[in-house]
Amino acid sequence: MNVLDGNDDTFWAPESGEGTSSLLVSFNEPTTFNVVSIEEAIQNGQRIESFTVEYRTGESDEWQSFGSGATIGSKRLVSGVEVTATDIKITVDSYNDKLPEISTVEVYAAGDLFGDKPVVLNGLTAIDNTEMEKSGNWTAETINDCHNSTSMYTSAANAAASFTFTGSRFFLYGTQDPNHGSARITIDGTEAALINTHSSTRDTNALLYASDTLEYGEHTVAITVVGDGAVGLDAAGYLNNQGAGMLNFETTALTMEEDEVYTLGLYRVGGSSGRVDVTVNFEPGTAVQNFFDTEPQNVVFEDGETYKEVTVTTKRVDGTATGADKGDTNFTVTMDINSTEGAGKAIQGENSAVNVTIKDAERHHSDTTELKALIAATDVPNTGYTSDSYAALTAALEAAKAVQDDDGVDAILKAYNDLNAAYRNLVRAGGIELPVVVGETVTIEAETGAVENNTADDDGWPATVADFGWASGGKGVDAVKSLDTVSYYLDVQKAGRYEVTLSYRSGNLANSIVYTSDPVGNITAGSVSAGASSTAEGTKQAVFTLEIPTAGLVEWIIRGGAEEAPQMDKFDVRLVEVIAQEYTITASAGEHGSISPSGEVTVTEGENQTFAITPDAGYKVKDVKVDGVSVGAVTEYTFENVSADASIEAEFALEKYTEDNRFQFPAEVGASAALEAELASEIINDESNDNGWPCVVTDADWASGGQFVDAINAGDVVKYYYNAPVAGTYQVTVTYKSGSMANQLSWSSEPEGLIESGTVDAGASSTAGAPKTKEFEIVVTEAGEGTWVFTGPAGKSPQLDKFDITLKEAEEPENVSKTTLEYFLNSAKEHLANGDVDDCVQSIKDLFNEAITEGEAVMADAHASREEVMNATLKLVKAIHALEMKAADKTDLEMAVELGDMIDLSKYVEAGQKEFADALAAAKEVLADSDVLQGDVDNAWDALVTAMENLRLKADKDALEDLLNEAAGLDLSRYTDESAAAFRTALASAQAVFADETLSEADQQTVDDAVAALSEAKSLLVEKTP
C-alpha cells in the first residue's frame, strides 16, 4: 500500500473528491498504539479540510472513534488513549471537492505528550507511595486519578517518607491544595529543596519536585513534613537509562510574529551519555502549512553534549489579500527520539512539546502601538554589550522610530521583527564576576583594565600598563592622572558592600584614586588616599568600601586624584554584605475584571508576590500572561523568588449573558449579531433523563468560541437573557454538530409570547467532519427585554455552537405623537436655563435632571411606545408642578442649633432638659434634610428656642458646700449635748437642701437660709468643761 511504503512521492487518493472518502489500513497482527501519524502528499498542495480516525479489533467488531481534526498538512499527529486494534479507518473531507491525497500513515505508542497522560512520565520507573518507607502518622487514600489509584497524606510535623533508587534524576508527584503546606527534600542526607504544596486549586497528581541531574548511581531521597499544612504524596518516578538522559525544550509556550525566526533551545538533562538522534517536528493546528515552515529538523547530541538549537520559522500571510480575518493561530513543535547509541535509551522529558502562537499581523500591527511599546522596552543603555551587537540594536531602534502608522502592516511588522531580533541578539561583552557569597574574595589585576591616556596632562608620562617585578602578576598600571581612566567591566551578581584592598606603590603621600561608574550610580562614587613617601617603602595596601547598590554588568571607572594615582598592582574584592534589590512587577487587567494588587508593585529580591485575578459578574478569566507568555486562565498567580522586573496582565471574556448584560438583538434591518451558545444564562439539566450525559458546556476546537452546549436531552432547558430593541422577523443561522437525524431545536420565551414558539430540524448522521448549519426564522413580537428558552425535544437537540442572527424585517413602529412631550421638555429646559430650579429642594433638582434626560431619550427613540412617551411626559409635568417647593432658609435654625450645642446641661435643673434635648436633635435632623420646606424649618426653630427658654439654672450652692465640708471635720463629742444637738438639726436641714436637685435660681433664698442656720448653730457650739 502506498501509504506504508515510506516514500513521500507515492500516495493514496480516492476516485473522486466529492463528499467524504475513507482509507482502510489493516495490520498484520493486533497492534497497540496511542498516536496515529498522517501525512498529506504535500508536494501537491494541502487539500484535506477535516478528518476522523476510527479503529476496530476485528472485522466483525464495531468501529470505535479514536480522534478527529481539521487540517492535516505535511504531518498531523492524532493522539488518544492507548488501544489495541487490527484496523484503522481514516475518513476525510476535502477543500472545494479537491482530490484528497495521503502519502504516509503510521501508528505508534508515544510518550506523555499524547493520549491519557499518566501521573508518572513515560520512560520513568515508578515508586508508588505504598512502596515508600514512612515514619509518623500517614493516612492512605484511594484516588482514581493517582498512580495505582493510591495516595497518602499527613499534617504531622516531622512525619517523613523516603525511597532509594538507582538512576540520575527523579520526580515527586502528589497533591497541591489550598490547605497544604511545605516539606523538605533531602538527597543522600543533604537538603536539596524546601517545596511548597499550597495552591489555590486542588490537584491530586501534581508534579511537586523535579531534581537536577544527579551522578548516575544509588540515591536515597527523604521528604519531611514541615508542619505548616498537610502534605500529600502520590508517587515518585526516577530515570534509570544509564545516564542517557531526557530531552526538554526550553519552554512549553512561545509567541511569535509573522515572518519571524526564533532559535529554540533543546536541553538534555538527567545525563549525557551516548549519542542521541532526534527529529523535531512542526505540527499544524489552527495554523496550516503556509503559515510556518513545516520541514522537520534533525538534531544529534553527541556523547557529553547537553544543548542544541533548532529554528522555528513563521511566514507572512496577508489576511486582507484573501479577505479572511485569520486571527492569531497556533501550531505545535514536537520531538521524536530516533535512536540512542552507547547507553540506555534517552526519553522525552516533561517539556517535550511547544505550543507556538502566531500573532496576526493585521490585528497587531495595523498601527504602531505595539511597535512603540517595543521601542520603549528595548531602548536601553549599553551596560556591557559588545559594540557590534549594540550597534545593531541602535540601528534597529532608529529604523523603528522612523516608521509611521500609514507605512502599512508589512513595514511596521518588519521594523518590529528587526528590533525584536536585535534586542534578542545583544551579546554581553562579559565582565569580571564579583563574589556571590559573603566572605569570598575575587582578585582583579590592575593591568587587566582598559587604560585610556589623555595626552593633555600626561607631561610625557602617559597612563599605561607597565612591567613591575614587584607586582603579583608582574605588571601593573602606572601614571594615571586626573584626566586618564582605567576601566573594568564587573559582573555584579549581588548588590551589596564590598571591601576592596588596593595593593600599590607610591612616591607621593598625596597620591589617590577617584572612581565612578557607567551607568552612573550603579557603583557609588568615591575616592581613596593611596600614597607613600617613597616607592622604596615597598608595597602598601589601601582598604576601602565599594558600595554597589544595583546588580548587573557595570563599568567601574578609575581616575587619578589631584596628585595622580599610585602605581597600581591589584584589587582584592571581598563581599561583606548583600543588599536586597527592589524589583517592579507591572500588573494590569483588561475590561470586565480586576487584578490585585494592580499597577507597579514593588517586590524585594527573593520574596514571593501573589496576584489575585477576579472577573466581573458574568465574566471569566480568558487568559493570564506573565512577561507576555500565557500561563492559562488562572485566578491566582505567584511570582516566586523574584529576581527581575516582570509583568502580568489578565484578559477577561464573557462567561454568560446576565440580566444586567443581555444578548443584544440587532436593531437595524440587515444588521447581524452572533449569540455564542456556550454563553447561556442558565442551563437546567433534567437528571432523570440524562442517562449519564448531562447538559453542559464542553470544550472543542471546532466551535467558534472554543466551546459548545452539549447533550440537550428531552426536558433539558437552556436560557438566554436578551434585549430586542426592535420587534420583527429575524433570520437565524445555527451552527451545530449532530449524530442523529432526529435532532431538533425547540424554543419559546419568558414571558410567554415575546418570541413566537417554534421548532426546526437540526440533525445529521454523524458528528464527523465540519459543523453543519441550519437557517430558520423567529418572530419577536414585542421590543424589550426577555428570555429566549430552548427546551430539549423528544429527539434531543444537536451540539450547539452559535446562532448568527440578522434582522430581516422590522415591525413598523407605533405612530405615537410626541408633540406634548416636546412641549413640556422644552418648557422644563427653559425653567432650568432661567435658574427657576436653583432654589428648589434637592429632590426637585434631581427630578428635573432625570425627567429631561428621559424625555430626550424618548424623543430620540424612533421606536418609542405610546406608554414610554406618556411616562416621560408625566415626569416632566410633575417636575414643573413642583417648582414651588423652594429650598428653605435655615440661617436662624443653624444659629439656634449652634447656641443649643453651647449649653452645659449640668448647670440646669433636670426639669426641661429632655424637652430641650429632643428639640435640639429634631432641629439637627431638619438641617440635614435637603428637601425640607420653610414651614418645617420655622417649626423646628420655634420648638428649640422655646425649650431653651424653659431651661432653669440650678441654685448657687457653693457656700453651702464649703460650710458642709467644714462641718464634716467637727468632733461633736467635744461640745455640750445641747449645743451639739442643735448643730445636728441645722446640719441635717442643710444637707437636705444641698441634695435637692430641683432648686433653681428662684429658690436661692432657701439655700441662703440653710447657710445662715448652719453657720449660727456652729457659732453656738459650747465646749465641755474639764
TrEMBL record:
Keyword terms: Glycosidase, Hydrolase
InterPro entries cross-referenced by the UniProt entry: Bacterial_rp_domain, CalX-like_sf, FA58C, Galactose-bd-like_sf
F5/8 type C domain location: 1-66
CDD domains listed in its UniProt record: CBM6-CBM35-CBM36_like (cd02795)
Taxonomic superkingdom: Bacteria
GO molecular function: hydrolase activity, acting on glycosyl bonds
Name of the protein in question: FIVAR domain-containing protein
Species name: Candidatus Mediterraneibacter stercorigallinarum
